[in-house]
Each structure stands twice: as C-alpha cells, then as structure tokens.
Amino acid sequence: MDTEFPRVIYHYPELHRSSLSPCQNYSIVKKNVNDMKLIQLGLTLFDPQVSRTGVDEDLQNPKSITLFKRQGIDFFINKLIGISFVDYVFLFMASRISIATRWLGRNRTWITFHGTYDFEFLVKILSQQNLPHDLSQFMQLVYGGLERVAKSSNVERIVEKSHQASSDRLLVMQSFMELQKTYFDGPTKELLNAFNYKLHGLATA
Question: Listed GO cellular component terms (predicted)?
C-alpha cells in the first residue's frame, strides 16, 4: 500500500522527527492527516503462491504539489474523473479488502514503507472522520527513501515514475519480497514477526 498526499504542513519547531516520542509523533501526524485530503491511494494485491508475471482549494505543501505535477499527476483530470472518498470507501469495503488479516482463506500482510501517514489516511477515509485523539485509541483501530532501499536490494522500478501511489506501492512490494528472500529466508523467517503491528515512529515497544 502507498498513498500520495500534500505532504507535511505542520512540524514540531526545532525538533527532528527522530527525537520525538511515539505520542508526539502521533500528535503531529494526526494534525496533518486531519487537515489534509488524500491525492492517491495505491494497492498491490500479491499472492506469493502464484507465479509473478482537486487540490487547488485544499491545505497543501506547494513544493510537494509541484513535485507531483512534475511526476505526471494531473490534478485537473483528477478533479474531472477522480472517484470521491465516499464512493471509494463503498467499493473498497464491498471488495472485502479490509483491515482484517485474512482474505480468501489466506493470511494477509500489509506492506508499507514508512507507512505512518499511509495507514492513518486509510483509517481516516474508511471511518469518514478525523483520527482519534491519542495514540492508544488509534492503535486499537489497526491491529528516505524508498528508492535507496530498493536500490540496495537490486530492485528496479518497472512502471511509471516515483511519487505516484501506483508505482510506489509496487516498488514497496517488490523490495519487501527481495528483503524477505535475502535476510529472512528459512529459519530466520520468524524474525519478521517482531515487525507485526509496528508503524514507523509510532512503535511504543
């Protein structure tokens, strides 16, 4: 899964994100997510058992909007033929792709890269309301770069450009599968369990 949004408009002044506590991180992420609208949500459905073959009026970070336009996102077309959040939620839930951990009788894993904003935007549009007030309430709901990670695993982007949800979520999936094969194969596979239910910047343990 990957999302594209107008990037961060609120920050903790003079504090680097890495120095913030999980609760401080959640507080600033929540404020950003609640006050902005999602541009794209990209999903890749992958079964390892199968062979692999309107922004003008909204709060935004202008530099990010310029980047998205340079990467090929056409906001005018989005406004003309883009789907509304209400319709998207209906189709998403009707497809039975939900936060639940099983799908078609198989265990499901959600894969993101620094997915804090991705999950929080997904929760926001599915619930059709602002995020919960504090981190503990949010966690009850959900039981630099990507290019560098992909390059270190010798994974190449095969479709479209960076900073588009459809392309980024595919690269995330490919990178994860390569990292799993390289570092978590055989007896070490169980080590991946340590990352279950962990969101970057929001892990309390």
Answer: CCR4-NOT complex
